[in-house]
Amino acid sequence: MTSVKGHAHHGLNLDLAMRADAKRRLQSIRGHVEGILRMLEEDGAYCVDVLKQIKAVEGALGRVGDLVLRSHLSEHVVTAAARGDESRMVDELMELLKYR
Amino acid sequence: MTSVKGHAHHGLNLDLAMRADAKRRLQSIRGHVEGILRMLEEDGAYCVDVLKQIKAVEGALGRVGDLVLRSHLSEHVVTAAARGDESRMVDELMELLKYR
Amino acid sequence: MTSVKGHAHHGLNLDLAMRADAKRRLQSIRGHVEGILRMLEEDGAYCVDVLKQIKAVEGALGRVGDLVLRSHLSEHVVTAAARGDESRMVDELMELLKYR
Amino acid sequence: MTSVKGHAHHGLNLDLAMRADAKRRLQSIRGHVEGILRMLEEDGAYCVDVLKQIKAVEGALGRVGDLVLRSHLSEHVVTAAARGDESRMVDELMELLKYR
Questions:
Q1: Angle subtended by helix axes A47-72 and D86-97, to nearest 10
Q2: Which of B68, B71, B77, B86 to mutate to test the interface with C (most CBs of C within 10 A)?
Q3: Which of C20, C89, C98, D15 has its CA at 20 to 30 Å from residue B60's CA atom?
Q4: Cα distances (angstroms) measured from residue D58 to each of B93, D85, D98
Q5: What are the start-end ranges of the E strands in B24-89?
Q6: CA of B14: how far to CAs of A46, B65, B67, D8, D22, in Å?
Q7: What is the pLDDT of residues D18-35, one digit of tens each?
Q8: How far apart (Å, rounded) are the C-alpha atoms in residues D99 and A64?
Q9: What pLDDT score does B6 carry?
Q10: Distance from CA of B4 to the nearest CA of C (A)
Q11: Span A2-7, average pLDDT
Q12: What pLDDT, on the 0 to 100 scale, is given for residue D99?
């Protein structure tokens, strides 16, 4: 998936500051998933507590998604007409937002 | 479903077979999150690819949630009237299903 | 869909007070949909305003759904074990909550 | 896309063909809501049948939303950099997509 230049895609890479933020959040999400795994080891784990934790992780993932989406909109989508790849940009977004 | 000690709640514990399945799925989710973290290290990572992976993890988490929810409904909710904790069961579920 | 006794379903009917509340809300939702239809007649209708109104109607529908769901849980699901139709109750709920 | 007078915003109006399609769909949604209102009049209305109809209307509304969103992305968002209103376009979209 890496390449030196003109890479796999089209030069539409992740913004660096956003990338660092997304990484921190995903590391915390990984820790949260490990916490749920530990919960499942406990004798007395209660379904609703597990469901609440799963929902919290979904919320955290949604916030990473929003971060990446905002960056994608700002960096790539609003400039699509100038680049000439607007139909690709729109199709990709619509596919992503389905059932979101 | 009841047990003598070791749980904070009220004997409404996770079903064992479901618990094993949920653990396998959460381990795979942890691996998927680590895969996204590796993607973010790559120079050429493209926003939409990251968003697709986040969406896939959300889907996988939703499936674990469905597993736990189905087990909770079957094991605990349908028997609530007999136990007498129906208003607690209903309030908990409604809170969980908000914005789901 | 009506029937005199033992009706189409199984005597699991809508709670009356909840039903009145749901009707009031659905009448308001119908009015809101008509408002969006009028918006679409206007020359200057802006996409984002239409999308906001659609989202508001979705929220209002979700609130009617929550009302009916809470009533269903309280009146029918928590008593399922006593009636003996728990697997039907659970399957129906899981089907409804998919992608919710 | 531009027009001289008659709109509050900034010349970013709804595409005409999409508007006709959205109107047809919203008229059908209004009819569907009226159908649910009629269901609620019936003695034997069953919660789960009402919930299924509400979910169907939510799906139909989501499809109108997708139609308007796709048109907005294609007509207004991909050209935002050229117009210079990209931060407004992005903020509006992010607000709309919250909890979507």
A1: 160
A2: B77
A3: C89
A4: 21, 31, 16
A5: none
A6: 6, 12, 11, 56, 46
A7: 899 999 999 999 999 999
A8: 13
A9: 34
A10: 24
A11: 36
A12: 63
**CB-CB contact of B26 with A37 (8 Å):** yes
Closest alpha carbon within chain B to C88 = B74
Size of interface A-B (CB pairs under 8 A): 147
Per-residue confidence band for D17, with pLDDT thresholds at 50, 70 and 90 = confident
The backbone torsions φ and ψ at residue B13, rounded to the nearest 5 degrees and listed phi first, read: -95, 170
Contact status, residue C32 vs residue C64, Cβ threshold 8 Å: no
Residue-wise pLDDT for A23-52, tens only, equals: 999 999 999 999 999 999 988 889 999 999
Task: Compute the residue count for chain B.
Answer: 100
Which residue in C100, C14, B6 sits closest to D45, CA to CA? C14
Q: Among candidates C62, C30, C43, which has minimal Cα distance to D27?
A: C30
For the stretch A47-86, pLDDT in tens is: 999 999 999 999 999 999 999 999 999 999 999 999 999 9
- The rounded average pLDDT for each run of 10 residues, N- to C-terminus, in chain B (100 residues) is 41 81 97 97 90 96 96 95 96 87
Q: Do B45 and A92 touch (CB under 8 A)?
A: no
According to DSSP H, which parts of D15-79 are helical? 16-41, 47-72
Please give the domain boundaries of chain D with CATH numbers for all domains.
Answer: 16-97 (1.20.58.1000)
